């Protein structure tokens, strides 16, 4: 019997939809009943994670814990959350969740390691970059991590906050494209889309750069945990056994 996946969502709503869509997309299913049971708590009351890390903003942990509790009570066997920055707070709420909470960043690092990647470029919020959550995971996996310069990082933040989160799909991408190309020119083999708004941006804007999508990795890991089969191309992409 397949396990039930619970999504701690609302960080933001589009990223939550994107994760759910990817769970469906990676599953090798011939009918409705072959898919995984998924519960979603689209908790938009969770305070901004970057503001909490960098500027002393409201602590998101109480709301993260509330979502975890609601999902467990509703029957979730495993929890996932489509927000890279929120993983900075993982150790403060996940151990008390009562069910396993998959760690998107560690799953991504493990996948890159299995693929034999040695150097990656991180595209993420200021909070994610400065928190060190990716740096720590990549160090453990013996993968070099590059980040944009100050101008490039601001361009990344603009695409996330002034673009996707604001619903503005007319934003100028010139600075963002330069930031990506600079990372690749410095030796990054792939770009890590380390904010869950970025896969949405890549799709909406038709951006074509070598990348790995942690949301897609997380969806695949969750489906495997739930006991449903992955599509063969997904298993090969992430070098799952």
In short:
By secondary structure, this protein is α/β, with parallel strands linked by helices.
Question: Would you write up a description of this structure?
Answer:
This protein is an alpha/beta fold and 241 residues long. The protein has two domains: 5-104 and 215-237, 3-Layer(aba) Sandwich (Rossmann fold), CATH 3.40.50; 105-214, Rossmann fold (3-Layer(aba) Sandwich), CATH 3.40.50.1860. It has helices at residues 13-26, 49-55, 61-74, 90-93, 104-115, 126-131, 133-140, 150-164, 174-185, 198-205, 214-226, 232-237, and strands at 5-9, 38-42, 78-80, 119-123, 144-146, 190-193, 211-212. Strand 1 (5-9), helix 1 and strand 2 (38-42) form a beta-alpha-beta unit. Helix 1 packs across helix 11 (214-226). The chain is globular, with a radius of gyration of 17 Å. The model has no long low-confidence stretch (mean pLDDT 96).
Q: What keywords describe this structure?
A:
241 residues, alpha/beta, Rossmann fold, 12 helices
What is the CATH topology classification name of the largest domain? Answer: Rossmann fold
The oligomeric state is: single chain
Q: How helix-rich are the residues, as a percent range?
A: 40-55%
**What is the highest CATH level, the class of the largest domain?**
Alpha Beta
DSSP strand count? 7
Strand content: 5-15%
Task: Output the radius of gyration.
Answer: 17 Å
Number of helices, counting only DSSP H or I runs of 4 residues or more? 12
How far the N terminus sits from the C terminus, by CA atoms, comes to: 21 Å
Any idea what the shape is?
A: globular
Strands in their spatial order, largest beta sheet: 5-4-6-7
Number of structural domains: 2
CATH architectural category of the largest domain: 3-Layer(aba) Sandwich
Major beta sheet summary: 4 strands, parallel
String of helices and strands: EHEHHEHHEHHEHHEHEHH
- Roughly what is the average pLDDT, rounded to an integer? 96
Structural class, by secondary structure, is: alpha/beta
Low-confidence stretches: none
């Amino acid at each position: 019997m397949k396990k039930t996946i619970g999504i701690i969502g609302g960080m933001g709503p589009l990223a939550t939809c994107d994760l759910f869509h990817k769970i469906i997309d990676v599953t090798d299913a011939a009918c409705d009943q072959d898919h995984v049971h998924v519960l979603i708590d689209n908790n938009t009351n969770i305070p901004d994670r970057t503001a909490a890390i960098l500027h002393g903003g409201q602590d998101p942990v109480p709301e993260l814990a509330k979502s975890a509790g609601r999902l467990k009570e509703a029957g979730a066997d495993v929890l996932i959350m489509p927000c890279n920055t929120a993983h900075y707070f993982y150790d403060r709420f996940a151990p008390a969740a009562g069910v396993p909470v998959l760690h998107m960043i560690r799953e991504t690092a493990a996948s890159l390691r299995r693929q034999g990647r040695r150097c990656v470029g991180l595209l993420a919020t200021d909070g994610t970059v400065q928190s060190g959550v990716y740096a720590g995971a990549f160090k453990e996996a013996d993968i070099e991590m590059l980040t944009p310069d100050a101008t490039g990082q601001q361009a990344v933040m603009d695409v996330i906050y002034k673009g996707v989160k604001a619903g503005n799909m007319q934003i100028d991408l010139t600075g963002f494209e330069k930031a990506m190309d600079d990372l690749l020119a410095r030796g990054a083999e792939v770009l890590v889309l380390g904010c869950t708004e970025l896969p949405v941006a890549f799709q909406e804007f038709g951006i074509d750069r070598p990348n790995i999508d942690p949301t897609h990795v997380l969806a695949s890991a969750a489906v495997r945990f739930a006991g449903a089969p992955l599509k063969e191309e997904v298993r090969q992409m992430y070098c799952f056994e």
